[in-house]
Amino acid sequence: MEISAQLAGIKPSYIREILAATQAPGMLSLAGGLPASELLPVSQLMQAMESLAQSPEVFQYGETTGYAPLLDFLSAKHGLPSDNAAMVCTGSQQAIDLIARAYLNPGDTVAMEAPSYLGALQVFGLAQANIHSIEQTNEGPDLNQLETAFATGSIKLFYGVPDFHNPTGVCWSLAVRKAVADLCNRYQVAFVEDVPYRELRFTGTALPLVSSFSPNNAFVMRSFSKVSSPGLRLGMVSAPKEWLAALVKIKQASDLHTGLPMQAVLLSLLRSEGFPKHLEMVRSNYKQRYQVLYQALEPLFGEYCECDTVEGGMFVWLKLLKSQAMDVTRTLLEQNVAVVPGDVFYSSVDITRPALRLNFTHSSLAQLEVAVARLSDVLRAQV
Amino acid sequence: MEISAQLAGIKPSYIREILAATQAPGMLSLAGGLPASELLPVSQLMQAMESLAQSPEVFQYGETTGYAPLLDFLSAKHGLPSDNAAMVCTGSQQAIDLIARAYLNPGDTVAMEAPSYLGALQVFGLAQANIHSIEQTNEGPDLNQLETAFATGSIKLFYGVPDFHNPTGVCWSLAVRKAVADLCNRYQVAFVEDVPYRELRFTGTALPLVSSFSPNNAFVMRSFSKVSSPGLRLGMVSAPKEWLAALVKIKQASDLHTGLPMQAVLLSLLRSEGFPKHLEMVRSNYKQRYQVLYQALEPLFGEYCECDTVEGGMFVWLKLLKSQAMDVTRTLLEQNVAVVPGDVFYSSVDITRPALRLNFTHSSLAQLEVAVARLSDVLRAQV
Fold this sequence. Notes:
Number of strands of chain A: 14
Oligomer: homodimer
Distance between the termini of chain A: 48 Å
Shape of chain A: globular
Largest sheet of chain A: 8 strands, mixed
């Protein structure tokens, strides 16, 4: 049976092969974007489940927007503007998809940083949107390119990951945040602010959301995968009420609502006395993994690769000075080390830069060191 | 911001108003499609949750297709053909959406019974598909109309609910099942078999799935909302492997996968010794509610309305002989009784028949009797 045009437009993804390969025994994987399994708050979640018997309504059909007590808690916690509304989604990934389905027609144009989050590229690909790529500096998107793009009048949405960007780890500066909000307002481009890594800052001071400077012109997507558990598949999207209403209609047709029991469990976890301590532990643990990775990489800098420091998140972006990313990736895989070649994070092969995305949150300190030792050998041998 | 063409094509739904009204205090609701809250296996689910600590992998990211032990169990239980594959979805509703996104282009035509399930009408509306309506007899779809439609060569999918149809309660006869499978095969139209009520048979003998006569030409969607808990939002879709692979790609982009902990909990529940007894209890309870509703309606038959008997499911379809469905619905709402006017289950107002869908699984026996007493007054007064 012939597949739809939207599905036919999705490119086969090399990253699926890599991620499949990471399941092989003995593989050291710096490829995925997985939190450390041993740090997931399993016992806290188990404890939170015990209280579900007091909320039997979570086993019946519910509202499309999600479990109301969770929405109330999150709206208060994040100081949601009164003319905004929120909905729980099956991960923040689903929110990107709902936005695309509610607001994009085939041929519409979305601006994105280059490189950008692969899952968002896939969603906008399904929506048959054109991608207008904006180069990323180490302070965020290139503002001149952004304004030039907006001035064409053809950009409908600007999708960005301002906090510890996937794949680069870049955190947008305060000045860039204000400027992006201002440009989006001026040119009436809706900003799609995806902040799954926002709570994973282990150095420096938190910066305001871009949307805090333009709350009536943005969608904000939060994820609970990085701070609680990805297996729950829970995220939240907030937006001006009218914009959110459009997403609710799509979600109602597509799955009625996200499963409720784990929404109640998440609420108990987030409210629990021990949660801030858990989060602090995760941050400090990830900081250590990052430092070990970075220090292991340092001897390669200047000659073989470059790498900016990061203040949080799950990834570093290793720019290759002498090698091609796909070559290095393939050779490393033969040596049981999985990484992601930077190429997959670009909407077009014409604009790729040779780089690797390295995840530091799912491997032990020892595994990180072994992986870098093998990477080092590969880079030195390839020259 | 302008919404997309797919969203703009969705009609505002009167059923949302009705369902919102059902929340009012004192409302007797025969409107929704909810299982009885007091029969949900909450304590069994709570018990099943205790074992999650032994499966910590359900808290990490997983495969898009779902929790493998659940898929294995269900594939064995349902005797899935070896060249078919299955995926867990966020309710069977999501499976309809995935099929539409993977296989339909705007302007493609889907055949459906008239009346038909509203959630499927919404999905195919989002897909901007044309609906070719096939009249329903009390044995299933009209086969002559179906063959005439198929012979045009323009039908891509035929969506049907053969077991205790929503909204009519009709169960397709064995002859119709075989004939539909045969026609779909002959004209190469994929059959989309939606069986959320299949396990809710309380009289008569189970009939084979339509797809059992053409396993290489059908999608099958099963729901766990009616037999375990709708709040979990868990369903399953199975299809020939290649067809399923297309759905997996769409699901990966749209939400990565459905939440895992409740998939493991569902598996424990389905495997538990007490589950067959639970299901038997639900069936016998629903049978009693159905009988009370039907007997209360009987004095109205012939003069004011007609109603075929049903052998399972959650609904009866009350054909009105002298009144308009919207009028009756509005007047009943003023008297705190909510029902769904049949009009909403048709793709076009031109083909509607005056009828009401009455749900018998979410009201007590006493509530059903009071609701019918008020309905009786309204029907008699309207003549």
